[in-house]
Amino acid sequence: PWEPIKGMPTVSSYSIIEDKEHNIWVSTFGLGLFKLSDSAWSSISEEDGLDVTNTTSIAINDDKVYIGTEEGLFLYQDQEVEKIDLQETLNDNSVQALFTTKLGNVYIGTSNGIPAMVKGNKIERNDLSQVQIQDIGKFPLFMETQILMIFTWEP
Fold first, then answer.
1. pTM for this one?
2. Is 143 strand, coil or helix?
3. Alpha-carbon torsion, ordered 139, 63, 119, 97, to 10 deg
4. Alpha-carbon torsion (19, 52, 98, 57), positive or negative
5. Dihedral angle of Cα 44, 47, 50, 55, to the nearest 10 degrees
6. What pLDDT, in 10s, does the model give residues 57-68?
7. Predicted pLDDT of residue 6
8. 72-76, 100-104, 108-112, 130-134: lowest mean pLDDT where?
């Protein structure tokens, strides 16, 4: 039978990603964000500034870890968490999926499609807000696959 690895979160996971240093990041439903580094698990939680426990997606760009949640987008960098308010730009704080392109842009998938991206340090609206993906919240990995197919042409 399958048994959890010691220290590994035993809750539902929405997204798992590996960074360039071979750390494994796991977004969970109920326990926030976890990182596996050198065979040891650590958590990014309220003590670090991540004041939500349901994380839906993760994207990594250089040393920046973007954390999607139902409450908005968070940036984890230099062991600090900063909330990025999407309400003003997108009128929707529920991030369902994230995807990083080869150029380093991070596309943001919400329940309203893919209306924006993080480019540099700015949130920019894009013309893909009309892209609708059924049950986007239930299939974040499917959505990332769809975004990959859409954005492989990016110049």
1. 0.76
2. helix
3. 10
4. positive
5. 50
6. 999 988 899 999
7. 64
8. 130-134
